[in-house]
Amino acid sequence: MEVIIEEIVLYGIVIGFATLVVIFYLLRHRRRSKETSTKIQKAKELGFHEPVSLHPVIDPDICIGSGACVRACPEKDILGLVNNKAQTINASRCVGHGACFHACPVQAITLCIGTEQRGVELPHVSPEFETNISGLFIAGELGGMGLIKNAVEQGRQAMENLIKKMKRSQEAKYDVIIVGAGPAGISATLTAANNNMRFLTLEQDSLGGTVFNFPRAKVVMTSPMNLPMHGKLKLSETSKSELLDLWIGVLTKNNISINQQEKVESIEKINDYFLVTTDKEKYKSNSVILCIGRRGSPRKLGVPGEEKEKVAYRLLEPELIHNQKILVV
Q1: In whole angstroms, what is the distance from residue 246 CA to residue 252 CA?
Q2: Mean pLDDT of 266-279
């Protein structure tokens, strides 16, 4: 009889402990779902829920709620779990790392550009990255490729295909003009230099493109990739500044210069060459590669004083305006 009582007590303790564990899990699960739902609602109110570029799309029928994607994202609060299913929170802050895509154990995540509410029209390009205009190529995020590794690879491939198909004109000073100095543009530039091309790279802002616009401490995840004229880069995690320093070092080592702060205003096909007009000069080139990304240029109000140093068009260093009185338009 005592043995039976001991077994009952033992089983009761085990069942009670298991029940407490289940209750704790359910309460924790409910609390996290509520927190995520609150964040999603706040993001919608602030306009952060709609993505502006490459972003994850989760298939709820496949998602098992492991949370691997949430833990893998270095940006935090891009993804969250609601009722044991992953959902996007601040989708507009996604910068296209793709870590969530690789972390998902059941392949429930796809990386997309555009939504039903915010459609995005992508240019039509051939497998060689050439548009319907002969000699005009597109690489990087403009063509739908937002991951840094893939943008670098696409910039290299686009330039190699351009070299194979290029027809030289006596009117053109350059073999190719590269518009944009982000990951794809830098890769295309290095490939052109490696093949002794007559090239010119134009950047309306600063070297790095979209990467340059990340906040100073932003972590930029890049899986191993091959950078022309440098070799294989084995980077899993790196900061914005380290990545920019690497690119600057490779360009400097190979005596390659980039025309920064020079905005392209128009590209016109004239006979067998392109006339590229910037805010500083006009150039003639046999071909053009667009590596301009999708963030574009900020719209300005056209009022006196908007070019002063105290006026900013993006928030790069928030610590500089801490406790300051500012006006946001």
Answers
A1: 10
A2: 92
* Stated pTM of the model: 0.63
Query: What does DSSP assign to residue 65?
Result: -
Q: What is the pLDDT of residue 229?
A: 76
pLDDT digit string, tens, across residues 77-113: 888 888 889 888 888 777 666 778 888 999 998 877 6
| CATH architecture assignment, domain 136-290 | 3-Layer(bba) Sandwich (3.50)
pLDDT digit string (tens) for 183-203? 889 999 999 999 999 999 999
By percentage, how much of the chain surpasses pLDDT 70? 79
- CA neighbor of 329 nearest in space, from 311, 304, 305: 311
Tell me the C-alpha distance between 247 and 183, whole Å: 9
Which one is the CATH code of 45-121: 3.30.70.20, 3.40.190.10, 2.40.30.160, 2.60.40.1120? Answer: 3.30.70.20
d(C-alpha 322, C-alpha 328), whole Å: 14
Amino acid at 222: T
- Name residue 204's amino acid: Q
Span(s) in the chain for CATH 3.30.70.20 = 45-121
- In the chain, the percentage of residues whose pLDDT exceeds 90 is 22
- Spell out where the chain has E strands: 54-58, 79-82, 85-88, 109-113, 136-138, 174-179, 199-203, 219-220, 225-227, 231-233, 238-239, 259-260, 264-270, 273-278, 282-290
Q: Where does the chain hold its CATH 3.50.50.60 domain(s)? A: 136-290
